[in-house]
Write a structure and sequence with these properties.
With 166 residues, this protein is of the alpha/beta class. The chain is built from five helices and six strands, in the order αβαββαβαββα. It is 31% helix and 19% strand.
Length: 166
């Protein structure tokens, strides 16, 4: 599966250079997708973040991504594994393809490792803005990089995201 990783990373770099989109202000957006790396120790309070966005009238969908063959015991309604993609990064299931066909306004990446599979899923969201943790090496996909403290991360994400104006 190492070759699959290299192919997906190459496709990601190719796709990321296509075009730059003008970011919509937070007040104008409707749909947010939160993609969380299930292979990392959870630090962001996902439920609190989702609740905060919904309280502001935003539609929120959350997806967990894992490189493991068997997903970890999580309460995530939707989990994507590396086995859900072909050798060349094409979705094997229809629901992932349907998800890729939808457009969203913002994608929030709860990932500190710059995970190739998470980036692959995120770039297919065709979002207006990608928000995530500041990382080394820098994630080229991110429009806004946040370096929150470990306490109340969801509040820091929300505060910075609400500041985005068009």
């Amino acid at each position: 599966m190492m070759i699959q990783k290299l192919i997906i990373e190459w496709l990601f770099r190719r796709r990321i250079k296509k075009k730059i989109i003008q970011v919509k202000g937070f007040k104008k957006i409707k749909k947010i997708v939160i993609i969380i790396n299930l292979d990392e120790k959870k630090t962001c309070e996902l439920e609190a973040l989702i609740h905060s966005f919904k309280a502001l009238g935003k539609s929120v969908q959350s997806i967990g991504v894992t490189l493991a063959d068997e997903p970890p015991k999580q309460s995530m309604p939707t989990i994507i594994r590396k086995n859900d993609f072909s050798f060349f990064g094409k979705p094997k299931t229809s629901w992932i393809q349907q998800f890729f066909n939808k457009k969203c306004d913002y994608v929030i990446l709860i990932d500190r490792s710059n995970n190739y599979l998470l980036n692959h899923v995120a770039i297919h969201c065709k979002a207006n803005c990608y928000i995530g943790y500041k990382s080394i090496p820098e994630n080229e996909l991110l429009t806004l990089q946040i370096e929150p403290l470990f306490e109340n991360e969801h509040e820091v994400f929300l505060r910075y995201i609400k500041l985005i104006e068009s």
